[in-house]
# Entry
Amino acid sequence: MYYCPFAHSINCQNKKGVHMRINSMVRAAFLTVALSSLAVPAYAVTLLSNIGNATVGDYGGLPDTADSFSTGTESLTVTSINVDWERANGGTTSVGIYTDNAGEPSTASVGTLFTVPCCTTIGIMTYTGNAVLAPNTIYWVVMIIEDSSEPAFGTDDAFVADPSTGGAVIIADTSSFGDHLTGSWTNDGVDLLFEIIGTGGSGPVSATPVPTMSAYGLVVITLGLLLIARRRLRASTKQK
# Structure
């Protein structure tokens, strides 16, 4: 506590106000350090991918294309989907996750539509959205194509799954072409190249990078400067 020997002194009251503000900032800095030491949310990783496989060609199914995967023992929170486009016409494409209907995509989507700000280009494009997927369930990645662009496909069944998925798999040779609005699909038996980004398990997801040591250091330096300022203020008061 700050003590004013002359309670009605304007100078004393001003110093008291400064002292109280410094104390508030010191408490806030301590709280920041304490909160930063708590457990942080899970951060997005590549949950499931076959994008490293060799490209055989471009998949010309119209109007839309799809490929299936199954979650493992953990629920998944999907925040983005990457698609490898072998042929691009510069128009609009988007991606949705749909439930399974007897080995084909149903007309029921899960979560939001995954979109990009602009046009389809050749290569890997990242579509952002959000979907929470149940464990041990088959889903379809549906590429909704409005510009006749064609995704890349391969015939290698290999894929990579992050351990946090609890054993998720890309189901081999289940590519299909059809219409996401009508639910009419034809299986074509190859593998579209895509990857799913997000977190496995039920924890919260954050796209924010993990705080660096420099960020923590800045908080500690700020705290130290505030403590020095408070001590100097006390010392100047005692001298008077």
